[in-house]
Predict the 3D structure of the following.
Amino acid sequence: MIQALSGQLLVGLINGSFYALLSLGLAIIFGLLDVVNFAHGAQYMLGAFVAWMAMQYLGINYWSALILVPLAVGVLGMVFEQLVLRRLYGLDPLYGLLLTFGLALVLEGIFQNAFGISGKSYPVPDLLQGGTNLGFMFLPRYRMWVVVVSIAVCFGCWFMIERTRLGAYLRAGTENPVLLQAFGVNVPLIRALTYGFGVALAAFAGVMAAPIYQVTPLMGSGVIMVVFAVVVIGGMGSIAGSIITGLGLGLIEGLTKFFYAPASDVVVFVVMALVLLARPAGLFGRQL
């Protein structure tokens, strides 16, 4: 029983690590740009597929992909922001949601037509194969790598946004872009970098997920609703809220699978409903 519970908690912690990374990117884009990026799941899928294609056709290994793929996908995100998304700033956020939802459908359709819906496997790097026998459970090395790196990246992003000069510029660009522009800061570039950074986080999560899950065109659509629920529970735009809530809900999912598996698919949304009834702005959001 202890082994089964530990296994489910580990699975929950791994899922929570991906929830935290993805919801962090969503929270950054919404909190700093006021854009509901519904393409986030597709950009997560894009990161996994670019890593797989780089391995298949260019021989680029996991370690290189972990750096190059988020950069490449982030640059694509910046191009999209400059050419299309920037035209919607100042309008109702619904327009940005509809635009990014359309982008998600386009990306998923392109990859379905090119590769079908069957999953592609991505090998675990040699350095992280195997695991450790703890006596009560077997701890896979790669899965623990995912948890540790996800937490480190999330903390690093929080520190950058909340405690550095660059983060102050990003937050100031949201509050008063005209004043920030008057001080000589290139606000359009700041916005493009913000969106590109959020997209790069989604792509980074996709590369990390590729050796664990099957790489498919629909892998992002399966997780995006849960990630949106995480962001709402944590508080729209709250960086710390997204990280803590993502990890916590992953563990709650794992516990639910152990005690009553059929409820694990809806427990996140039940928690969201209860939190919104008690605190409409989310756990860490600002009450109006």
About this structure: The chain has a mean pLDDT of 90. The two ends are 46 Å apart (CA to CA). Strands lie at 131-133, 138-140.
